[in-house]
Design brief:
The chain has 4 helices and 2 strands, in the order H-H-H-E-H-E. It has helices spanning 6-10, 12-20, 55-73, 95-103; strands spanning 79-81, 109-111. A two-stranded parallel ribbon has the order 1-2. It is globular, with a radius of gyration of 14 Å. The model has no long low-confidence stretch (mean pLDDT 90).
Length: 113
């Protein structure tokens, strides 16, 4: 779930009900950053361009999203689906190793790319 989505705020009681019925609220980040340098990504706003993120910035964003989701469902374990399947941060292929290794501390499983 992208926690800055207006749909989340508008339907918060429904999301709580879904969680109370046993469904996981998975993390999908706060801002859904994607790599604007890739084809068909002209819709990505400059301040959400994964090509300009740092590993530390993304980890912090995911921690914030986990905290927000815990406030909704009371759960501390969840999965993460990578926005746009982009596993590289800052347009540096080597950064993906740092990114992926730190996700192990935050999630039970990672889905994506």
């Amino acid at each position: 779930m992208v926690v800055n989505s207006p749909v989340l705020n508008a339907r918060l009681d429904e999301w709580r009900a879904v969680a109370n019925n046993g469904h996981e609220l998975g993390n999908h980040s706060v801002y859904h950053p994607c790599r604007a340098s890739l084809p068909n990504k002209d819709w990505v706003e400059a301040h959400h361009d994964f090509d300009h993120y740092s590993v530390a910035q993304m980890i912090e964003e995911l921690e914030v999203a986990n905290t927000f989701l815990k406030a909704i469902d009371g759960q501390s374990e969840r999965t993460y689906t990578v926005p746009c399947g982009d596993m590289v941060i800052g347009a540096d292929v080597l950064s993906s190793q740092q990114y992926l290794s730190q996700l192990n501390e935050l999630f039970t499983a990672v889905k994506g790319g």
